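Minutes, project check-in
Item: structure for the 445-residue chain
Input as provided by the requester:
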Amino acid sequence: MQKNTIKLSDHFTYAKLLRFTVPSMFMMIFTSIYGIVDGFFVSNYAGKTAFAAVNFIIPFLIILSTPGFMLGTGGSALVAKLMGTGKKEKANSVFSLLVCTALVAGAVISTVSLVFLKDIAILMGAEGQMLEDALLYGRILVIATPAYILQMLFHNFLIAAEKPKLGLWITVVAGVSNMLLDWLLVGVFPFGMVGAAAATVVSQIIGSIVPLIYFLCPNKSLLRIGRPQFDALALFHAATNGTSELMSNSSMSLVSMLYNVQLLAYAGENGVAAYGAMMYVSMIFSALFLGFSIGSAPVVSFHFGAANHKELQSLKRKSLTVITLFSVAMVIAALLLSKPLAQLFVGYDQELMTLTARGMKFYAFSFLFMGYAIYLSGFFTALNDGLSSAAISFLRTVVFQIAAVLLLPMIWGIDGIWFSLIVAEVMAASVGFVFLFIKRKKYRY
């Protein structure tokens, strides 16, 4: 059994790279399923307005979890690099500090968000029943913010600890719990929005408490939580290196809010509901790219710390090949499944289903470019180059998307909103490859 264990220090073939990253890909898919299952049951059992309300408030809720992404990606890159240089005690000390920091951040964010949630929802444009539903769903999830942040943090550190399969199983159990509870609390018992929110909270608690207990107890991984020692420099390095992930997830959610505003103007409540269904599909597809990026990042960080430049070159080349194959497969799948997926979420409303299916066909082509931007941003984070990673993420999720969604609808109406998603990904991928070319001599990949 020990022979089959993949170490960060190994040489990675295509097969070994996929074996190591597949668990993290499934982890991200199951994490995405939480919101998707909520959306499915709410849409089909609570109605279109409730479905629009969930889609309306989810971008804000995702923003609340971004410290987990930031400390998880930036921190795991630092910890893996420390392990690559042989500083295992220091690596565990930094890991323990980051877990404590995530808990404190979660408690503060949860408290502040509960106070201002209604004002934020009104500012975004919610009113009437949609506002009430959004607040009902949002308040329950805001309370569980510390668990959500820890869950995102542990996604990365289970991989850095050479335990990606354990991370996968924890995420599967959490995801299945979410699905069963959604079926029970929304499909069987008429608890509606409250039931959907409660199901998600339970899954987040499972996804955070189980790895927390694992790392607190004696284990066979590379990491264990001990008494944290405050290290301002390490905390600053982890936070700044993970800024791109913080920025990426925050700005994507902010941009989603802007899309909802535009869609309310051009297509009303139907537009928001259609966009919500498309985003659920996108969450699954982009989860594969994000999971591969997260799964391969500790390997890149380790070999960067060990100054193994030949292996870095090999990892970069193989990873871009994998991303290319995934991209082509996803475009084909999205085009073929656009109508069945639209029917799955909003099949009860013919006009809404037609609008959703048309939007999905446009959006399908964005998957051809999305993976490159996601991977290249993560690649630079793994190299502890947070500035380059943040630049790619910022341009992708803020500059290009906002410019496209504001300008293109003036020319093509609602089709311009769908087309803006493609334009933004093309521009972001181009910028990513420019950075890859410029930095090649510095990092020798």
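Outcome recorded: The chain has a mean pLDDT of 86.
No further action items on this chain.
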